[in-house]
User: Fold this.
Amino acid sequence: DTAVSQTPKYLVTQMGNDKSIKCEQNLGHDTMYWYKQDSKKFLKIMFSYNNKELIINETVPNRFSPKSPDKAHLNLHINSLELGDSAVYFCASSPRGEYGYTFGSGTRLTVV
Amino acid sequence: KNQVEQSPQSLIILEGKNCTLQCNYTVSPFSNLRWYKQDTGRGPVSLTIMTFSENTKSNGRYTATLDADTKQSSLHITASQLSDSASYICVVSESSDYKLSFGAGTTVTVRA
Assistant:
């Protein structure tokens, strides 16, 4: 199936831990993104990578570090997790020109 | 202040009825406007995308309109079905690459 897939789907962890969320797309898109959707359902962009190069970094704490080993993967590593990091994190990808923007199904992170 | 405002925040309709969702935006310069449907626990899925020159676009029972002069868009759902229960998100793209502005969404509940 052609898609944006992210793992895990659910993640429950304690405060202070370090965790990673993985994202892969097999659509051949050039650009990948990480979004955070808070409890009010509002989607906010965190990072964007184009061909492994960081192009958007939206005032995200430096505890969040994206890693793009190749243009089909964009992983999100979070250090020293805090309660406020609890949210649903969406990965997305798009080809050049924005059409065909595709979201993954989300990772629900709960920090306890 | 968010650059994309949606109304109403939520609505409940009976199966088979029509409804219209509103989106006002201040994003400039404007590139395109998209409507997404997000089912509970899933990622957003694109319904329509309209550029500056397009006034209306349909996707099955979904019809989106755009007035780029007044910076308003609407999404009309015809003959609603139970499967239309979801959050509908208006997203506006700036002319610069990769920059999307998201509305907070309208939650639609269709009841039998």
In short: The mean pLDDT of chain A is 89.
